[in-house]
Amino acid sequence: MIVVLLGPPGAGKGTQGERIAQRLEIPKIATGDVLRAAVRKGTEQGLAAKAYMDAGNLVPDSVILGIMKEVLASPSAQKGAILDGVVRTVPQAEGLAVMLAELGRKVDSFLLFEIDDDELIRRLSGRTVCENCQTPYSGREPGTACDKCGGKLVRRRDDEPEAIRQRLKVYREQTEPVIRWAKEHKMKIDRIDASGDRDEITERAMKAFTE
Ligand code: AP5
Q: Which residues contact 135 (CB under 8 A, 6 or more apart)?
């Protein structure tokens, strides 16, 4: 099963993606996590992506499609994958569709997280993430240890107010058109209310796949 998670920054794609992946026993692939790991390692890809990411802008489509090509060919993705934040522009959606078609596969569902801006800003302003495994936390101070791997919790540079505003603008202008594109191509779009309790949101998402 191939599921693409769509939704604005802070909607909970990372949080829910992890849970859904566990439930479906398939890997979660997040381009943001792949890029942040490349930045930390100081690879050529990471150095090229850093300035875009820190400012809240998208990295070029060619970089993302390159990452996706590698990921989809890997043995771990053969049963399926939860793609978190992978498709953020119409050219990316088109590119992914072509890659999947070459493998005899397709996107089974676009899972769209819907939530209002005030809640997003509240969540992102209070977020820390593990610099090692990228697990997001709320209400935990930078410098404390990750429950999962013991890594250090840090604030993301793109969670500063100016970068959050820019990410929301980019989402409206470049990512929302993907929803129209998917509709035009008669693809399955499952909209879920992404506000409220984390467990309830997971149940809403799982229910959407079975309808
Ligand atoms: P990426 O890392 O994907 O960031 P994003 O899409 O902006 O999403 P976030 O990670 O900020 O939020 P989320 O929806 O995952 O929410 P989370 O679960 O953490 O991308 C970063 C950058 O990389 C992009 O700006 C771009 O530069 C680049 N990039 C990546 N992919 C790209 C692509 N395809 N094309 C081009 N560029 C790309 O939750 C947020 C917070 O809320 C957490 O603290 C969490 O604990 C908390 N929370 C979660 N659920 C709840 C709840 N139900 N109630 C209360 N709090 C909650």
A: 18, 129, 146, 147, 148, 149
Tell how far CA 119 is from the center of its chain: 18
Q: What is the pLDDT of residues 159-171, one digit of tens each?
A: 999 999 999 999 9
- C-alpha Rg value of the chain to the nearest Å: 16
Rounded Cα distance between 150 and 133, Å, is: 9
13 tagged catalytic: yes
In a mutational test of the pocket of ligand 1, which residue from 29, 52, 59, 64 has the highest number of ligand atoms less than 8 Å from its CB? Answer: 59
What global pTM score does this model have?
0.94
Residue 180 annotated in active site: no
Residue pLDDT, tens place only, 40-62: 999 998 998 999 999 999 999 99
